[in-house]
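Hey, can you fold this?
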Amino acid sequence: MNNSQRINNSMVRTDVPHTEIVTVGTVNVDLVMGPQAPWPTPGTEVVLPKADLREGGGAGITALALKALDVQQRMIVNVGNDLFGHWLQQQYPVLVEDWVMDQVDTALTVGITHPDGERTFFSTPGHVAVFRPEDLMTQLSRIDLEGVIVLFVGTSLMPTIRPALKDIFSFVRTHGGRVALDTAWPTEGWTDQSREEVLSWLPDVDIALFNEAETKGILRKSSLSELADYQQILTRMPPNAFCVTKMGRQGARLVQRDTPFLEMAAGTHEVVDTIGAGDSFNAGFLAAIAREQAAERALEVAINTATMAISSAPRRYPSGKEVGLMNPFPKLTSRKKLVI
């Protein structure tokens, strides 16, 4: 039985700016509290100095960063039909036309920050565990994908979507889109099965966006110091694909086939809150690539976007001008398949 439904938007748009990026993934509610150290004794109560209720999930954070960068975007996610699900819709009023509502609870994540900058998360599966591939494909088929980057973020956390991803990626590329992938860390860890699953997706992935720990996990490597270390990924990807490794305070590295490393340091900055650093990076990098900026410039935009986000309190995502993102090309298209 299908208990999913599209979320209707009362606005009908017939001529809108061409979509640059579509984000597919998770959006949920984050309750971030802290700092706390050491871990409390069971059965006791701790009063923490700070708490922040905000939008979370890989797609949720990416969409906020893209909005600040003034990128034309769409967002395909599902939410639960409850208080938190309706609250999330209110935070993304112009993006909900591609959302799906499921008759379940919306996922909630409680993040506890620690004085050393690290954090611990507790999450419920909620709506994320029931997002149906059929619903995702229905929403994708309504979008003109020609020239569009489609970012799939947090795929390792989407158990119902994972088995269908090879077909979904192929659909995007067949219809003129480019696939970007950020798997996130799988809940089961990097087992033989999860490694082979990710490697099987790579022939249809144009832009891989992994952090350093994820890249090491996929490749079974303890270090990544040479181009040869990436061959297991690069040889499976399309010839002109990018493989980007996010390295935290050390910056980022971009590799392509038969091309020397391109590395860029993050510089010095005071980190306030690292939650969403990778998603902010993804937004900056893909925005620059969508606007045909050079790879080196894209890394710079990405690092600047992430740095400014995690250095802000309260959280603020930078504008395109602040991070060196060029203006979009003037291009309009009709959404012929859009039916509200």
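Oh, and this one too while you're at it.
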Amino acid sequence: MIRRFIAYYKPVRKLLFVDMLSAILIAGIDLITPRFTSHMIDVIIPSMNVTLVLRWSFYLLIAYAIRVSLQYVVEYWGHILGVRMEFAMRKQLFAHIQQLPIRFFDNIKVGKLMSRLVNDLNDISEVAHHGPEDLLISVVLLVGSFTMMYLTQWKLALILTVLVPLMIAVGISKNLKFRKAFRELRRRVADINAQAEDNFSGIRVVKAFTAESQQEQLFDDGNQRFATSRISALKTMAEFGVSVSFLSISFNWSFSLWEPGSLFPIRCPLADLSSFYCMCSSFSNPLTASQDSSCNTIRQWLDLNVFWKWSIHRHSQMRAIKSMI
């Protein structure tokens, strides 16, 4: 599935390179900033040298300005990348639908095709942009933060290492529920689109047989199923967000037990401890960047595309056999 999807990156590979490079630089700045702050607290500020403090503050301001500029590149040009991929996919999908035999449309509702053509492709474009970017940033932040924390104070880093498997287990379990909930939600959206399209296209027949009440009841049933699925998805999102917040608080709480003067004191400079608190947030960012079931939507769309090609091939073979007979 991934190999088939990567082919759509080829026309926009330059934008992809710029987006990935900007993401790497953003992650690098996020890793350097805590150490930068630690050096200012531990060395620069105690020196009481106003010129040196202003100089290093200016350096920190430059780093933040560069990060903001790179964030703009990621937010704007990264979404441009997704829009161009979405344009190519929708163009290919619509052209392919035009070549399908009539019998294909007898077995599928037009509203569901519209949902594939509009809603699902929009989600796919978001994954095309945020998927590789979030994956790269997550890897850089996790590996980089672990390395810098062990180099700074290995005892505190060891505490975090014990808690990381718990974070991974919670992330995987919640992400599975996340995917299931939003997959069901997309099915309900497709059903509503299909019901509305059937009603609007056949409104003359509905009015001729005075079946408005029956159609309203059918639509209310579908709308109720959509609302139930939406509530379930929102509940999963809330559980996911609370879990991430709880893990972040647990990290900070575990560090507070080992601060100088606490229950289990570890000799650690205040500057290093402050950098640990800053880098601790790096572990919650990859978890919050987890995607929903959009990857499953990609697989469904590509597999459906393959089925369409197969159906056309089979239809051509049947026509050739009939002509020979």
